[in-house]
Amino acid sequence: MIDSNTAKKGSKAAAFDLPQVEVPEMVRDFAEKSVQQAKDVYSRIKSAAEGSTDVLEDTYASATKGATEFNLKALEAMRANMNASFDYTSELMGSKTLAEAVERSASHVRKQFESLSEQAKTLSMLAQKVATETAEPIKAGLSKTMKVQ
Questions:
Q1: What DSSP character marks residue 94?
Q2: Quick one: which H or E segment has residue 137?
Q3: According to a count of CB atoms within 10 Å of the terminal CB, is the N or C end of the chain lower?
Q4: Rg of the chain over CA atoms, in angstroms?
Q5: What's the N-to-C CA distance of the chain in angstroms?
Q6: Could you report the per-residue pLDDT of 43-79, keeping only the tens digit for each?
Q7: How far apart are CA 98 and CA 76, in angstroms?
Q8: What span, in angstroms and rounded, lies between the C-alpha atoms of 64 and 74?
């Protein structure tokens, strides 16, 4: 049976000290440069990721604002068209003769065509504006990212 003193001596005998080896300066310099390069790459990646997050947030905010503005304008146009239809129906019901009804119908169709053309033009311009404003943060973010790299 091995006593505890012998076990301790045996474990000390099994353990050995590594020789003190001097690492050449060239190897140390290489290791330091590698670590610095890794830190620089990490910093650029982190910066790009943060920039991408900012771009997405700006894009989402811009798209949400634009969609809301577009939807409000579309609802306004729909309300105007509904009111025009109700007014037309009321006027048509007040017609005394067929000629008067035809004249009111022709007038209504002409006004609605002009109104719808103007509404389509307004909504189209607004859609282009929204698309441009939504794309602007992406364009700026990409430009910034390309400059960083």
A1: T
A2: helix 98-148
A3: N
A4: 39
A5: 69
A6: 888 877 787 788 788 888 888 999 999 999 999 999 9
A7: 33
A8: 15
**For 81-94, what is each residue's pLDDT tens digit?**
999 999 999 999 99
Q: Dihedral sign for Cα 88, 90, 91, 95, please.
A: positive
Return the HEC string of 95-129.
Answer: CCCHHHHHHHHHHHHHHHHHHHHHHHHHHHHHHHH
Detail the DSSP E strand segments found in the chain. Answer: none
Residue 71: name the closest of 136, 134, 130 by CA.
Answer: 130
Tokens of 22: 């001097």
Contact 132, 66 (CB under 8 A): no
* Segments making up each domain of the chain, as ranges: 37-148
Contact of 129 with 70, CB cutoff 8 Å: no
Q: CA 78, CA 110: separation in Å to the nearest integer? A: 17
90-105: b or e for each residue (b if 16 or more CB lie within 10 Å)? eeeeeeeeeeeeeebe
